[in-house]
Amino acid sequence: MKLLHNAPAITKALILAGLISACQNEKDAIVSPATSHEQASDANAKTVVTKLLVKDGDASLSYSGVRNVFTKEVVNSKYSKEYAYSGNKIIGTYTNLANYNKINSYDTYTLNAKGLCVESAIMPTLEFTTVYVYNEMNQLLLAYNKNKPNQRQEYQYEMDPDGQGSSLYSVTFYDKNDVLLKELHFKYVDGTDGGYSSFDWFPVNPEHLAQATNKYLPIFGKFSRFLLKQTIEKTYYIPNGVPAEKVYNYTYALNNDGSSAIKSITTKDSWGKTISLIERKYTTPTGL
Predict the structure, then answer these.
(1) What's the maximum distance between 2 C-alpha atoms anywhere in the chain?
(2) Which residue in 48, 92, 108, 145 has the fewest CB atoms around it within 10 Å?
(3) Distance between CA 105 and CA 130 in Å, rounded?
(4) How many Cα neighbours within 13 Å face the side chain of 274?
(5) Cβ distance 130 to 148 under 8 Å?
(6) Which domains occur in the chain, in start order?
(7) How far apart are CA 87 and CA 179, in angstroms?
(8) Which domain of life is it from (predicted)?
(9) Which residues are 184's β-sheet partners?
């Protein structure tokens, strides 16, 4: 508890809540993360997802075993991350394919009995060791630097319109001196946008998490059941504290095979200028 001494009050409360929850649910069992298929199916019990995401823009994804566990990500043939599973640990090996397959780092993820990541570190240095705290709904509340707990991200959620869950509403970033750096606010598709389903059957992690996280590892809880519609990013510049705001709007094209799988994601700024167009591809998982 030594790290709580210099932490702000809200951080102390979140850390203690997470520790109590973790103690109540601890088991002496070998755990493993939920597969992408399991996460997608759980979004709505009436829907069975029979595809795995294998291509997301420049990223190619691989899976292994009867549970279709995520094992490898290759981006533009320039670098790869491979994941090995052992007990409550996941080890990610980062390899620079463009530099004679040089291994740059090892990422270590420690899971609790629910398969949620409670700590991650970039090896061999411990400079970026991050601790994760969750609420009773297994949603991420706090991610903080283990050695400098003021350096953190705080997550807030709002009740969904149908009352069946809650979605990530905002993420607030602070530096090691407890100075506000950035805020992210999220809005979601409500079912009337673009003529497509509002549910996200193939969810990935937000790309704004702490160090040593991965977009495709389903070990950081559930952020929302719905497709993301808009992200508002406010960056606070020191010393004047005046925020600069950026807005990102997302639209989707779906496959016509009845699976509700996303074929492409278009991101535009507040002026309507296209920032990116990401195409996705899927495969049928084994064991279904």
Answers:
(1) 57
(2) 48
(3) 16
(4) 6
(5) no
(6) 2-283 (2.40.160.150)
(7) 38
(8) Bacteria
(9) 171, 233
